[in-house]
Automatic annotation (TrEMBL):
Alphabetically ordered keywords of this record: Kinase, Transferase
Family: Belongs to the ROK (NagC/XylR) family.
Organism of provenance: Cylindrospermum stagnale PCC 7417
Database matches in InterPro entries: ATPase_NBD, ROK
Gene Ontology MF term list: kinase activity
Listed name of the protein: Transcriptional regulator/sugar kinase
Transferase keyword on record: yes
C-alpha cells in the first residue's frame, strides 16, 4: 500500500456472463478511468477470464488493490458456483490466483452483492436485483450485507426460477413487453417475501425496464456494479 492513503487506487472488476468490465476508483470511490470492457471469453473457464482481467488491468494504469464482483457464490475469495460461466470455477481460489498475477491484494464477492454496495442507502431492509445474463440478488439490513443470497435460482412461476424467467435469454425470447410484465410480478413477489424498504434494480438489462415503479423501487445504472468495489476495503 502507498504511504499517502489519499492516493490509494482500487481497480474494480465486474465479471459478467457476457462482458468483463473494469475501472479504477480513487479512495472516495470516484472513477479515475473510463469503464473498459472485454467480451467474456467462451468457454468462460477460469484461466481465460482471469487473463481477460489481466489484459484490462494493464490498460487501466496504476492501482494498488483489486475488487472483483463474480457471478456466483463466493466465500473467502473462492468461487463456489458459476452457473453462467463454466463448472471449472467451482472451488477456484480467484482471489489468490489473481493476486499472484497482478501482484496486488485482491478481494472478491458476488457481483450482485458488489452492485448493492454501490447502491444502498444503508438503512432498513434493502434488496438489490440485477438483470443481465443471469438474475442476481443481494440483501442488506441497515447496510450490512447478507452475502450470496442467490434468489435467482429459486422458484418464481410456471415451474421456472427467477433467473429462467427474467434473464437476458428470456427477454430475447419473449420480447420487452412480456418480460416487463413478468418483472412486475417478480417485484410484487419479492415485496411479499422480503417486505423491503427499498428495491434497487440494476444490471445490463435494467435499461429495458418500462413500467410504473413504486416509489421505493429505483433503477440503478450498470456502472454501480463497479462503483461498489470501493466498499470491499472499508474494513
Ligand atoms: C448467479 C448469481 C449472480 C447472478 C448475476 C446467477 O446465475 O448464480 O450469483 O449474482 O447470476 O450475475
Amino acid at each position: 500500500m502507498v504511504e499517502d492513503n489519499g492516493s490509494v487506487r482500487t481497480l474494480s472488476v465486474d465479471i459478467g456472463g457476457s462482458g468483463v468490465k473494469a475501472m479504477v476508483l480513487d479512495i472516495a470511490g470516484k472513477p479515475l478511468t473510463e469503464r473498459a470492457r472485454l467480451e467474456t471469453p467462451q468457454p468462460a473457464k477460469p484461466e481465460v477470464v482471469i487473463n481477460a482481467i489481466v489484459v484490462l488491468a494493464a490498460a487501466q494504469g496504476d492501482f494498488h488493490r483489486v475488487s472483483v464482483g463474480f457471478p456466483g457464490v463466493v466465500r473467502c475469495g473462492v468461487t463456489e458456483t458459476a452457473v453462467n460461466l463454466h463448472p471449472d470455477w467451482i472451488g477456484c481460489d480467484l482471489a489468490t490466483t489473481l493476486s499472484k498475477q497482478l501482484n496486488k491484494p485482491v478481494r472478491v464477492i458476488n457481483d450482485a452483492d458488489m452492485q448493492g454496495l454501490g447502491a444502498i442507502a444503508g438503512k432498513g431492509v434493502e434488496l438489490v436485483v440485477t438483470l443481465g445474463t443471469g438474475f442476481g440478488s443481494a440483501l442488506f439490513i441497515d447496510g450490512k450485507l447478507v452475502p450470496n443470497m442467490e434468489m435467482g435460482h429459486h422458484q418464481f412461476r410456471k415451474g421456472e426460477t427467477y433467473e429462467e424467467q427474467l434473464r437476458r435469454a428470456a427477454l430475447e425470447q419473449i420480447g420487452e413487453k412480456k418480460w416487463n410484465r413478468r418483472l412486475e410480478k417478480a417485484i410484487a413477489s419479492l415485496q411479499h417475501l422480503f417486505n423491503y424498504d427499498y428495491l434497487y434494480i440494476g444490471g445490463g438489462e435494467a435499461v429495458k425496464v418500462n413500467m410504473h415503479l413504486p416509489l421505493n423501487v429505483k433503477l440503478i445504472p450498470n456502472v454501480t456494479g463497479l462503483l461498489g468495489g470501493i466498499a470491499l476495503w472499508k474494513d
